[in-house]
Specification:
Length: 363
């Protein structure tokens, strides 16, 4: 119990001292310590302890508040904050992408295109708690591809988030346009994207697909923006509880910057760094943002090491764009809003790219 309480105390104290909002978003943070200590004391293992601590952090109702241990339990389905954005919102319904490889959901027979209706008899949505204990049975109700009801009992197992490296895809589009997609802003994206832009500098337009990209390293976001801008510019700032704001700048790449037209694709799972990049491109009029309103999770997160292998991400700064727009809880509204239907999804049609081609042909 002493180890559990030590991690709990460390986590509470870091938030108490470092969280960007001195009013804790209207939450009585001291009362949270009393509320969650009994559950911490009864936690059976590290995963249960992490789940309890995450519930406490969720009381603040902001992004970039995350507790992590070595592994986590799950079904292979996850909310928008998980390592795999699954399911995805399509036409107001939560539709399955391919369940995580090797997961209990995959083994239970869940298929792409099934609509997730209920999670433990509760209507599914992003606010439903998907954390579970090892060997816990989760009752899931789906609508299958034929419109029938499927109820499955899925057993929670151990998932390793380190097995999900960033996807990096580049391909040509009609009219000589170039398409690039990367699933997060990790270090390896920098050299890859720079090489892709050098190799395709003559492409008349670049489509940067940030759909499903939940963010990553802020310096990687700045680097990507540098590749798209010739000259230096301020794009926004992070304001913490104390001190001067941290001004976010783009240094520009001069003659090496990509000079063609830019399209940025976003959706309901584009968060954090994706939103910073999309808003910067939009406000600077460097390009056109296409898709759906993004997550609205843009705070400056800092990671702290706790005892017994735990790490804690804490929101230390609130972000505003250079035009004074607060993106947290609001997201980025595309210049071109596009709706995706179930028919589009099941037929593998991409209305976002179709809209890009229409805009390009109208130039």
């Amino acid at each position: 119990m002493e180890a559990r309480l030590r991690v709990f105390s460390q986590a509470w104290n870091v938030v108490n001292e470092r969280f960007f909002d001195a009013s804790f978003n209207g939450v009585d943070w001291r009362q949270m310590r009393a509320k969650y200590q009994p559950a911490v004391e009864s936690a059976k293992d590290k995963i249960q302890l992490a789940n309890v601590l995450q519930e406490m952090l969720d009381e603040l109702h902001v992004s970039h508040m995350q507790i992590s241990s070595d592994l986590y339990y799950g079904t292979g389905l996850s909310s928008l904050r998980g390592p795999v954005q699954n399911p995805v919102l399509v036409g107001g319904q939560w539709v399955m992408r391919q369940p995580t490889a090797g997961s209990a959901a995959r083994q239970a027979g869940v298929q792409r295109g099934w609509i997730l209706k209920l999670w433990n008899d509760r209507p599914y949505g992003p606010d439903v708690k998907t954390a579970c204990d090892i060997d816990e049975i989760v009752r899931l109700q789906f609508q299958d591809l034929a419109g029938g009801e499927r109820t499955l009992a899925v057993r929670c197992g151990v998932l390793d988030s380190t097995k999900h490296p960033p996807a990096m895809i580049s391909r040509g589009l009609p009219d000589g346009l170039r398409y690039v997609h990367f699933s997060n802003f990790r270090r390896e994206v920098k050299s890859w994207l720079a090489a892709e832009i050098r190799a395709n500098a003559s492409a008349p337009a670049l489509v940067v697909d940030l759909r499903g990209n939940g963010g990553g390293d802020l310096d990687v976001v700045q680097y990507c923006l540098n590749l798209l801008h010739e000259k230096p510019r301020v794009i926004g700032e992070f304001q913490g509880r104390k001190g001067k704001p941290f001004v976010l700048k783009v240094s520009g790449s001069g003659a090496r910057a990509y000079r063609g037209r830019v399209f940025v694709l976003i959706d309901e799972a584009s968060g954090s760094g994706s939103e910073v990049l999309a808003a910067a491109v939009q406000e600077s009029r460097r390009g056109t943002v296409v898709g759906r309103v993004s997550v609205g999770g843009v705070l400056q997160g800092t990671q702290y090491n706790l005892a017994h292998g735990f790490t804690l991400d804490v929101a230390r700064g609130d972000y505003h764009t250079v035009q004074g727009v607060r993106l947290e809880g609001r997201g980025v509204t595309p210049d071109e809003l596009v709706q995706v239907t179930m028919k589009d999804y099941l037929e593998d049609r991409d209305p976002d790219l179709e809209r890009v081609r229409e805009l390009w042909q109208q130039r």
